[in-house]
Design a protein that fits this description.
single chain; alpha+beta; ECO RV Endonuclease, Chain A; 2 domains; 7-stranded mixed β-sheet; 26% helix
């Protein structure tokens, strides 16, 4: 899977511009750019915006893409558990390692269910003096039955499951994995340009006019929270027990166990009035595994995203992905475990939309960014 001449050419070209950022002989490669280059060269699906365990998907293979300075063995971040730090704070090393392993495994399995993945690898780009070393290694679940604790340090502790070595930083609530560069890694030499700005100027010989205003392009996505804005408090988010994804549990009449909707806050319609079709106008909702659901906006003020049949949304979201049983209440704690609390709805065209998951606080970040743009 590694050998791809176009991929190598992209990397050489981008890394040749390293002195735009640093005077080091070690090539500079921003991790988001590494992900984009990989997906373009291998025609892989880019999952980086979905904020899940994988950065890309190629067929049924999940891919984690890592770029780091080559130290023969490097500890690299693979997961953050800030939202779950309260459950980790008072645990001793062995208990903590097991809890971390369960959290990590659940996030991997959640991504597998969401995207139909049954195999996974890490694709690694280790950066050295005027060169890149490229290799792939296994992307494993942590084996809970073989965890052994290493020597603890003041700020962290390490453990192994006999396949991989991990470490956990207490203050950052971050899990790291050790990556070892193999002897047979593909070695690519990089010629770093002394003055890349001159090359860039040659590419843009025409006069460049800088406007005193810039136009913000029409957005192509919105974030919808899976929790209740009305019932939540600043430091305590809540999934409503009788509406939204738990609408089946509401009173007033007999309801089907698959009766749910994704709430659309009024601020979304206010700030992005042209994003969704009008109420009751059907559109296609593409889920990550390729299935297409028939969807529309419903209820007063178009506050609900639903599917027809309504059970289609619950079969995919509650049963297949979140693994909830019929009659089981979705809680915010469950969302925290898998590291998401929102969905990203991307507009393909007026009749087609795509749904993905978004990490915790994505909705708040979207609204905050929009407010900042409006204030400028």
């Amino acid at each position: 899977m590694i050998n791809n001449s176009l991929y190598f050419s992209y990397l050489k070209a981008v890394c040749s511009l390293s002195k735009l950022y640093s005077q080091s002989n070690i090539p500079f490669l921003y991790y988001r750019l590494a992900e984009n280059i990989y997906c373009k060269a291998f025609e892989a699906e880019n999952l980086s915006r979905s904020d899940i365990a994988y950065d890309a998907k190629l067929g049924n293979i999940g891919i984690g893409i890592k770029t780091f300075i080559d130290k023969k063995n490097s500890n690299e971040k693979i997961a953050e558990f800030n939202s779950l730090s309260g459950q980790l704070r008072n645990l001793k090393e062995k208990e903590l390692a097991i809890k971390l392993a369960k959290f990590r495994n659940e996030r991997i399995e959640f991504a597998n269910r969401t995207y139909g993945i049954n195999k996974a690898i890490y694709h690694c780009i280790a950066r050295n003096n005027n060169s890149l070393k490229i290799f792939e290694t296994s992307y494993d679940l942590i084996d809970l039955n073989n965890i052994k604790i290493g020597k603890p340090k003041e700020a962290s502790f390490s453990f192994t499951d006999e396949k991989n070595e991990y470490s956990f930083n207490y203050s950052k609530s971050t899990l790291y994995k050790k990556f070892i560069t193999p002897e047979n890694a593909i070695d690519i030499s990089i010629e770093i340009l002394d003055d890349p700005l001159e090359l860039i100027l040659q590419l843009f010989k025409k006069q460049i006019t800088i406007s005193d205003k810039f136009v913000v392009a029409e957005i192509d996505f919105v974030i919808l929270p899976l929790y209740s804005l009305r019932e939540s408090k600043p430091n305590l988010k809540v999934v409503s027990s009788k509406s939204g994804l738990n609408q089946w549990n509401a009173g007033g009449r007999k309801r089907d166990v698959g009766e749910i909707y994704i709430p659309i806050p009024s601020i979304i319609h206010k700030k992005y009035p042209q994003f969704f079709p009008d109420r009751n106008i059907p559109f296609n909702l593409h889920v990550p595994t390729g299935e297409i659901l028939n969807a529309k906006l419903c209820q007063e003020n178009s506050k609900a995203l639903m599917t027809n049949p309504n059970k289609a949304l619950s079969d995919w979201l509650l049963r297949k992905v979140l693994k909830l049983k019929e009659g089981e209440i979705l809680t915010y704690e469950r969302l925290m475990l898998i590291g998401v609390d929102s969905v990203r709805i991307t507009k393909i065209d007026n009749k087609n939309y795509k749904i993905d998951f978004a990490k915790i606080n994505s909705f708040e970040n979207l609204i905050t960014q929009k407010n900042e743009l409006e204030e400028e």
